[in-house]
Amino acid sequence: MSALLRRLSRGGSSKPSWPAVGVSRSFSSSTSAETEKEIAHFNKLAKEWWDPNGPFAGLHDYNKVRVPFVEKNLVPYARQDGSVAFQSLSGFRILDVGCGGGLLTDSLARKGASVLGIDLSEESLKVAMQHRDQQPKALCDLMTFRKATVKEMAESEPEAFDCVVASEVIEHVDCVDSFFHDCVKCVKSGGGALVITTLNRTAESYLLGIVVAEYVMGLVPKGTHSWEKFVEPKQLLDLGKLNGLTHKGTEGLLYIPPLRQFISEPMSRINYMIAFKK
């Protein structure tokens, strides 16, 4: 760790203030040994998904910004201030890639969307379905969960979704290029959206997303992240071009633990959200 810190420090980045949050679900286009390790990691944490003060607290807080980001980049009638009406996603079909315990799936469904959540962690999917089944029937009917990879979805349901969301997932996959391509294949042509949230590969993200968040403050379970697998925005922008997508916007974020709040960070040095149009 010290060697990597010294190497990162030579990049001349400014000293950060707060840790990144990126507790993610295990998900990949394949089931390699590394992927199986990720699945086992999240199986152990499955019962903690719906504890707003537990290991996934950051993802509960993340919904306050990532759901509006999906709305803004999918709903054509969003107002100038970025806000949208209640049930603004009614009529849209969304694929939640790496849904885990269903935190984002639930929030998107509450906006009226029909959401299919996929994951490879059976224990997380059980938790997601148990939570769904406790909701009112109208909300319950909007959520479906399935054990599947995005590659399998691309083959079985190509161009079937108005929006594909991969939130805090891509930094865990074995091959970013193929994962991105499979996500694109699931998006409808003619205006469908692809939304990705992840962590940039910077000195700040290492210090905050791993050292501070995992080992100092315990905001994220130890071993959740591998800094080498963090994804730079430019890589996603290049993949968007290669796959014929139009970049709609990128928003950088900084998590403030005492406030349980994400704030804008225009340099996208730590957490960021990015959207594309197909």
TrEMBL record:
Protein's recorded name: Ubiquinone biosynthesis O-methyltransferase, mitochondrial
Family membership: Belongs to the class I-like SAM-binding methyltransferase superfamily. UbiG/COQ3 family.
E.C. number(s) listed in UniProt: 2.1.1.64, 2.1.1.-, 2.1.1.114
Record: residues binding S-adenosyl-L-methionine: 66, 98, 119, 167
Pfam families per record: Methyltransf_11
NCBIfam families to which the protein is assigned, alphabetical: UbiG
InterPro entries per record: Methyltransf_11, SAM-dependent_MTases_sf, UbiG_MeTrfase
Enzyme class at the top of the EC tree: transferase
PANTHER family (UniProt xref): METHYLTRANSFERASE, UBIQUINONE BIOSYNTHESIS O-METHYLTRANSFERASE, MITOCHONDRIAL
Subcellular location: Mitochondrion inner membrane
UniProt keyword terms in alphabetical order: Magnesium, Membrane, Metal-binding, Methyltransferase, Mitochondrion, Mitochondrion inner membrane, S-adenosyl-L-methionine, Transferase, Ubiquinone biosynthesis
Organism: Chromera velia CCMP2878
Subunit structure: Component of a multi-subunit COQ enzyme complex.
Pathway: Cofactor biosynthesis; ubiquinone biosynthesis
Cofactor: Mg(2+)
